[in-house]
Amino acid sequence: MSKKNNNNEMNENEKTKKEKKKKKRKFPLLLLLLLLLIAAVLFLGKGGGFGFWGSDNKETEKTTEADTTEEPEENTITIEVKQGQYFINGKEVTLTDIEQIIKENDAEHTKYVMDDNYAGTQSWNELKALFSNHGITPVMEE
User: What is the pTM of this model?
Assistant: First the structure.
């Protein structure tokens, strides 16, 4: 009986070895099929491919249109208030001059900075009132 058991054990060992070999053969095949499926979706489908086939470049067209319609740069005008006088770029100006500058510049694309350099209360308040009359909120420089 020991020979039969040995034969049975050998047959079982051979069977398990054959099954393991079959499983080993299936794994690379399944992996290859999975990779081919992913590659097909990326290259041929509209699922985020690299733009070879089937992709419409609407996104790039939108960004191109946005790039061509650039907004004008923001202009910054700093007004220094010093002991009852107003200065722009080191040049003394009057409230009338400042009002003319406000009218000449686009309020939406111009930033006005008020710099308090020992300003008098009256001149500071007059300048703030001028901006308020034109609907402009200036930035206070510290």
Answer: 0.48
